[in-house]
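Re: [help] complex structure
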Amino acid sequence: MADQKKVEAITAIDVDFTQWYTDVVLKAELIDYFSVKGCMILRPYGYAIWENIQKGLDGMFKATGHENVAMPLFIPESLLQKEKDHVAGFAPEVAWVTQGGSETLTERLCVRPTSETLFCDHYSRVIQSWRDLPKLYNQWVSVVRWEKTTRPFLRTTEFYWQEGHTAHATAEEAKLETRRMLDVYADFFRDFLAIPVVKGLKTENEKFAGAVDTYTIEAMMHDGKALQSATSHYFGDGFARAFDIQYSDRNNQQQYVHQTSWGLSTRSIGAIIMVHGDDSGLVLPPRVAPVQVVIIPIAAHKPGVLEKAQQIQSQLGASFRVKLDSSDKMPGWKFSEYEMKGVPLRLELGPRDLQQNQCVAVRRDNGEKIVLSLDNLTADVQSLLDQVHDGLYRKAQNSLDSRIRSAVGMADFADLIQNKPGFVKAMWCGDGACEQKIKDETGATARCIPFEQETIADTCVCCGRPAQKMVIWGKAY
Amino acid sequence: MADQKKVEAITAIDVDFTQWYTDVVLKAELIDYFSVKGCMILRPYGYAIWENIQKGLDGMFKATGHENVAMPLFIPESLLQKEKDHVAGFAPEVAWVTQGGSETLTERLCVRPTSETLFCDHYSRVIQSWRDLPKLYNQWVSVVRWEKTTRPFLRTTEFYWQEGHTAHATAEEAKLETRRMLDVYADFFRDFLAIPVVKGLKTENEKFAGAVDTYTIEAMMHDGKALQSATSHYFGDGFARAFDIQYSDRNNQQQYVHQTSWGLSTRSIGAIIMVHGDDSGLVLPPRVAPVQVVIIPIAAHKPGVLEKAQQIQSQLGASFRVKLDSSDKMPGWKFSEYEMKGVPLRLELGPRDLQQNQCVAVRRDNGEKIVLSLDNLTADVQSLLDQVHDGLYRKAQNSLDSRIRSAVGMADFADLIQNKPGFVKAMWCGDGACEQKIKDETGATARCIPFEQETIADTCVCCGRPAQKMVIWGKAY
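Output below.
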């Protein structure tokens, strides 16, 4: 029992949510800070979550016919400038390479902030005929955006993501793809991260630079703020015209392709932390947890305990990501450590359990203790992990549902935004000026025009003119 | 049978090996060129090979206790400069970021050419006690080196690799790790890529900037030239002293850690192409081939053919990476296409095969045709894929063995290097001046001091002084 580090207490979640978040990302050993502002080091435990996210999502991409590629890191300035709206959106926040080895470059290269221009440049060379379509490409890379204010996972100068870029023969196909991939993201959030989302369309002010339409999934964090969690963009043929991506159709006519792009990033780890976490630290959804089950031997020096624990580890290891902690730390210390790290299920095994051919399972999400027979352990653990997933999802769904409130006038609206953490549903006339006014007065932005529309009132919450759409508003990360 | 592209013939391998290589990487659709010199686009088929390499090698890393992390893309100039030999080796070939958004940076950032300095910086913060050791970290990323002459996969400005970086309590442990990871690479080349290698130590002139010892695996290409295929470096405590990475040992004394690093890159795809390829194109080793088995229906319009082909695809798909090509192209065209792409096994299925409950398997490596009963197909295909792997390895081993020749004097040496493609074994006095003279006079470099030493002569092939070691020499990529 030598020089053991203690798990120090973290800030309480409802006392200072920002500090709690910082405490968790550091104490759970997800990241380390780095001297370049906004660049983070993903430590093994943090990166393992990302690996599991990649594995799950990549499987869904491949099941829907997508292929992975790798585009270059650098974009020549002239290439970035080809699509005017796009460059206007990104040029102010890119990092520029101006020297290579000992030579000063004749043209600056930006470190990719996103790769539309790279994919378009490639597509202009490899797409010739309708037989070459659709192109359903994706890549897993990091991108760089020179951010002024940064926080681990939520907004970082360099971040990790996947970016899908597709080219289609018709606008209809491209529109279907845009919506299909939004559904993939929403399903992934539900089935892997146990996080419910609101699906909808971004307003003109909030859409992606160069897009015709941007769709989004918005999740609600513990403090009621929104996190834009993934987006899917429909480009029409705007990029195709700028990059001259044409194909000859079945009648030998030249046609422009129609395109989409869609991305999900390490932000999703921020969502996991801020949706499920509690005063004891991280709470990980089982399907992306690096360790799904931790086995803690109690009185491990007693005959048979360690042997049985190893046997259980080996048995469960065939089906789950399992860790046996047989170190000389006190069991209570270990409990705290794996609670901080959000391990979904803890199995305790002591001499008395051995005698009774059982172990004690403890759920991270609600602290419930369940005595399990060792005879049917694999099936019981699978069932408990599924229950943890379902329990996390239900809790998050309740939290979301109970904190979306309606407002019909600006006084109500401002009061809700200021005093009731959560989203506000309110009608909107469609005028960007109202959207801006709401933002200026309340700090809330239009998160999305949700697919599930309701008629709360006939008039815009801001100006009183006839309403066009119901919008979900909220403060956001 | 509309507007089908034809597979155009490629340059013959023994007529112009360089042009053959370029033809193969383009016609097999591995890469597309990009406007930034030396940056390549990995197309789906090329990237899928890299994904399979990653999967296989990452499994070996995890089985040996290594964990993945992600370090930042940028290294501040002051951090790169901390270890003097290292910065001297890399500073001349890095890309520099000097502007972020609209601001000119006060300190230049280099785009990582390799990440020793990043790992050391992190280790200096997270290693405190002997309990924190060893740290066995790896990352899968791209790195950038501003190269003057580039060729796809072999030498590119941006390339993809893994870089392992470990820290140990003692020099002995770090030395064992260095050799262990070299063995992992050699095993991976043998078991996944079907490529035999020569293992050995690099000379002082050829070792990595900042290393005490650099170990290498060297493979022989079709043209007899060497490809340095992976390296493993022992650093002693040089980086630890430069970055102040100390831990308190069991006696509470402060000690410097001892470190290693090791890397394998997309160069390995170049090795696959240049070791196994032939006049018909790529020949892929089955364990990393994106498509292991392609099924080609013959007279697919005849009743039952396509249905049976689909049934076989579905059956084999449970165990292998299988593609069924039911397009309207001619079978002969398809044969050429999948030969160009190096698919290890082709299954042909026509009406007569159906009647006889069989299909015809054709091996890519040697063209052998084997009639297979449909009753035992999964086991037979597995066996054939293993035979292809073993056949490729044996052929490459024979090619390597028969082209390593001995020289005792400079006249012999120069004649062999000039007239006999392959490696030359020759004794060396250990003096870098002789090594340089050999390079100047013959163009051959010391590939390695192989672990398997022989005494070919008592004197240095160059100067006639007493020999210390046998060295493997060769022209190299």
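Residues 293-384 of chain B form a domain with the Rossmann fold fold (CATH 3.40.50.800).
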